[in-house]
UniProtKB/TrEMBL annotation, chains A, B, C, D:
It is a multi-pass membrane protein. It comes from the Bacteria. SUPFAM superfamilies: Aquaporin-like (SSF81338). The chain crosses the membrane at residues 12-33, 53-75, 95-117, 132-153, 165-186, 206-226. Keywords: Membrane, Transmembrane, Transmembrane helix, Transport. GO terms for cellular component: plasma membrane. This is Glycerol uptake facilitator-like aquaporin.
Amino acid sequence: MPDPAPALARRLLAELVGTGLLVAVVIGSGIAAQELSPQDTGLQLLQNSITTVFGLGVLILVFGPVSGAHFNPVVSAVDWVLGRRHGTGLSGSDVLGYAAAQIIGGIAGAVLANLMFDLPALQISDTGRTGLGLWVGEVVATAGLIAVIVALARTGRASLSAAAVASWIGAAYWFTSSTSFANPAVTLSRMFSDTFAGIQPSSVPAFVLAQILGAVVGAVLVTALYPDAPAAAGSVVVPAEATPHRPSDRSRS
Amino acid sequence: MPDPAPALARRLLAELVGTGLLVAVVIGSGIAAQELSPQDTGLQLLQNSITTVFGLGVLILVFGPVSGAHFNPVVSAVDWVLGRRHGTGLSGSDVLGYAAAQIIGGIAGAVLANLMFDLPALQISDTGRTGLGLWVGEVVATAGLIAVIVALARTGRASLSAAAVASWIGAAYWFTSSTSFANPAVTLSRMFSDTFAGIQPSSVPAFVLAQILGAVVGAVLVTALYPDAPAAAGSVVVPAEATPHRPSDRSRS
Amino acid sequence: MPDPAPALARRLLAELVGTGLLVAVVIGSGIAAQELSPQDTGLQLLQNSITTVFGLGVLILVFGPVSGAHFNPVVSAVDWVLGRRHGTGLSGSDVLGYAAAQIIGGIAGAVLANLMFDLPALQISDTGRTGLGLWVGEVVATAGLIAVIVALARTGRASLSAAAVASWIGAAYWFTSSTSFANPAVTLSRMFSDTFAGIQPSSVPAFVLAQILGAVVGAVLVTALYPDAPAAAGSVVVPAEATPHRPSDRSRS
Amino acid sequence: MPDPAPALARRLLAELVGTGLLVAVVIGSGIAAQELSPQDTGLQLLQNSITTVFGLGVLILVFGPVSGAHFNPVVSAVDWVLGRRHGTGLSGSDVLGYAAAQIIGGIAGAVLANLMFDLPALQISDTGRTGLGLWVGEVVATAGLIAVIVALARTGRASLSAAAVASWIGAAYWFTSSTSFANPAVTLSRMFSDTFAGIQPSSVPAFVLAQILGAVVGAVLVTALYPDAPAAAGSVVVPAEATPHRPSDRSRS
């Protein structure tokens, strides 16, 4: 009988590498934008946001069938909370493992971005991001993210998640004042790059609190809109269409 | 036996929140663009239009299975008019409810955008938008919007509506002189933001008239192109592929 | 028994309106780009090309099930030539009708764009576009266009035509030196706008010749790559997935 | 009984023309960007990267059903290595043929781009691209490319390869410091254009070595994530959904 341990290890590997690459995409493109278009901050954000749309969408496609491609502790937590009703979704201990993998991977991704652009590998951002407007922005961005993911899962359209999640984040870079971090693991990782995409440590706690609040708002909203979730839809938040390995992994872990 | 009231309430909630987020996307990204790229209005419109494409497409995916994701009184009205032949589509009173939810939600979205960017919550635009060229632009943009939605519904391709509607609006931001408001609820809401995306109240009536005229032109055109609508296609204008909740909602309301 | 005449009329209406809107998209967005970003021609072309991708893709979706959404005389001609083997595709007289509708519609679209932007309705471009490099560009752009359309039709993936054709033209705006007119009807129409997207009459004949040559190159290439076209694939060049009206239209005309 | 030779010839034709057009897209759009937006290098890279996304995606759609649309020797090599287990994939001699066609086609594409823009047909770049950061960038970009292709093939989603591969390259233009060549054939070809996209010959060997290393990293990663590849998934790396000609070609060659 197969050992479930490798399966969970593989899922944690997917979350670690996927979140790492996501952070490298966000920070790396921010550095490139800052270097190549020094005279227009809006053009930098356009370059940064378009890159994130392309990169995040692909990463969800690549890692989704293995781990769900959460790359985000609040997404994993919502998967756990909403899935408990049907005994599906991540377990509480899975969420801790996912979150650890996401944070470790994300910080490694920041270091990778620094190395690629010949910057000091370890650095701390001093970009302050604070204020009520920004926090409201994080609430809106995270609530929308959760609503997108759960709405697609509950209507059998999870195969659209890659494009939809990437598009939402791309839009929220612009229409929220906070440029839509919407992800505690990515927020923590962005402390470690003193560049365009960075955030200083003292700004992080309020951002994370706003993200948690946003996740709650999003979960309440989407539950009001789609109250009768099919049992199957609760088990994975961002699954892929074809998941030859996933079902057995899940039933064992 | 289930009570139909929550079903209609859920649909109105979807139209309210969806239109609110759409307006927040349009106005919020306009504010960000204006702040970040102050020297090139075209670059601002590019940022604004790309954000709208991403945001609108996602919002249609999220809210479509609940309410049809109209977000637009003329779309709801066309759904009612074209659906009457088969006894499908929205009822006349549904259209009033939809329009009220869209307008209330839209204005709330304008306020939300103002709050996110630390601007006064309540403000009135003084951006005049008037002239024959602009009105022709609104007619073209709205006619095209109606044609896209109905053509896809009548050919069984409504699952493409999210991408197609978003793309049409994104194109019409540029190729019409009016930057394609194409939506009376969004037009009214944009009065409440004295920023890049605003429109002063005195310019609104002519815009709305042009949009109504455009909807008529679009409905006539698409009826000429696709005269034999299947009965099923008349019932919803922007449905989603998988709609576990929708059929019963509709038959009850 | 139904009268075939309306069916052909409907197809010609689709080609006329579709080509008109395509030209309005191309010229209108060029005018807006020129007005809003006067200091950077590359930024103007970026705005123009992104708008064309969004607009052309949607127009193919809307008009495809009626007429094939050719919008382009060389596409119609290739449909006729390649379809003769199986007795499918357009007839020779259909091609003449299509071309007439495309040209008339295209010119009307140029006038519409001028009107929307409060420019003189009738004008002639004085933008010279001539030289071997540009002509090679038109050959490459048109050959690729034909290859994309026929390859997708011959492999049963015509539902991807809207996105693929739009993407090809968007790329060819940039990587060919001619900015990829690739369409005799659109080329003729662009004579009638003395703006960013215009072309002076004396430059048109060589462009059209290059486009015809490109169509031949594309047809030869795609026939070498996909020699065994299924009979069904020859009948329409840009069909849609769901075409309730099309089959009967075609068999009657 | 049919002769297998034309089948292989057709596949090599597809790789030759496809890689040629890919290089023309990359170099041609770089030249146009440099000419049209001379004042902002970041804007040039944005134009170059968006064009590449559109162009590469279409080329994969067009040539995929014939040859797999590798356009890249390391992709062909990975197809061979990973496919050996099931006796599927390219043979070793196929890989040599593919690589030769890719390199010849790519260089011809560079010449074509030069001709379209009225530049000397033959030229050698003197743009140095060297340093640890850039090499790490090439490793990351190529590893990701391989992971995307193989992950989609192993989960039965190869029809998403066109969009996913194009999006990955578009993102990697920005988030890696090397602007993501990620392809030895394209790297060699870009020596032959002394323009925006060029690379001087002395910088090429290290780039190619980094790409080979990246391919190994990507293959190891994706094998760890998706260990149990179905036999069918090993046979082609970038297949198309509908491949009427392919199966017989492959079984004979």
